[in-house]
Amino acid sequence: MTKVAFIGAGRIGQTIIYSTLLSGAIDKAIVFDIVPDLPQRFKDELMHALASAKINTKILATNSIDEVKDADIVLISAGKPRQANQNRTDVFNDNAKIMIEFAKTLPRNNPKALFIIVTNPVDQMASVFMKYSNRFTISSGAQVENMRLRSFIAERLGVPVDVVDGFAGGEHGEGLSIFWDTVTINNVPFDEAAKGKLTRDEVTNYVKDVAAQVIAVLGGTSWGPATSMRDIIVAVAANENRVMSIAAPIKYKDETLHVSRPTIVGNKIGPSLEKSLSEEDLRLLNAAVDKMYNEYKELTKNLK
Ligand SMILES: NC(=O)c1ccc[n+]([C@@H]2O[C@H](COP(=O)([O-])OP(=O)(O)OC[C@H]3O[C@@H](n4cnc5c(N)ncnc54)[C@H](O)[C@@H]3O)[C@@H](O)[C@H]2O)c1
User: Which CATH code of 3.40.1440.60, 3.90.1150.200, 3.40.50.720, 2.60.40.740 fits the domain covering 3-139?
Assistant: First the structure.
């Protein structure tokens, strides 16, 4: 029995909810948004889709935060999206205020919940939420970038996507790292399999830039990341123990930070598999942690 509360039913929220409910992996869903009637009318749509799929998930649609209770998982995607000409950190202040508000209200009625943050800048938002709620929180992190990485390589090399493996990590977005020693095609290392056909730079540019290109034309990303978010929820609900690039909290100097790395995701989060990364990949990860710390300090300087 898994009950999931979805906080925010905008572009990405709706797509996550739709994908998750259609997976049939959860029994109860709460859909919350501040826009009057939005959750209720979206619930109508979902019920029709679930009827087609013969899935019996129960949905509570609400504009009242007090009705968000007893969830096993709370996924937060409420907040401002960035525009095509903005970085994810440009929406930091506005979205941090929303995280702080939720950190004060959601934990009380959801004492057992795992909190998953999607709102951008997602890693920093997870750290803000955790700091103000004192609750275990993960960032959906770079799991979507794993899929951007694998799909691009498969397309360019003309191979099925399921023979491409590999992990990204560090910060979701512009500060991303690709852990190249994990990237294989049919178990052959990337450099050998892609020689003369595709370069590391081409892959890196695609993985880092594609979101901005999608936003410029479609107004926002939704289907790609939403499917990764669904995968995270299903991995927890079904205790899949699947390796995913999510960001679980780490202590670094005087802060709790969220920096993605391959991590086992089931009804327990972790351990992370950073010890099995190569020396070079680990160097990239450690550099990302240090960079994230400095940026987070700067961004949170004036946060109350
Ligand atoms: N982590 C990722 O991979 C990823 C991918 C896509 C989008 N995002 C982020 O998700 C967030 C939402 O993006 P979107 O495209 O869905 O935006 P959107 O504007 O379509 O939807 C945001 C929703 O949040 C709701 N909302 C805002 N403040 C609220 C509050 N205080 N309480 C309840 N609901 C509130 C709005 O009413 C709206 O329905 C953005 O920060 C975006 O950058 C993250």
Answer: 3.40.50.720
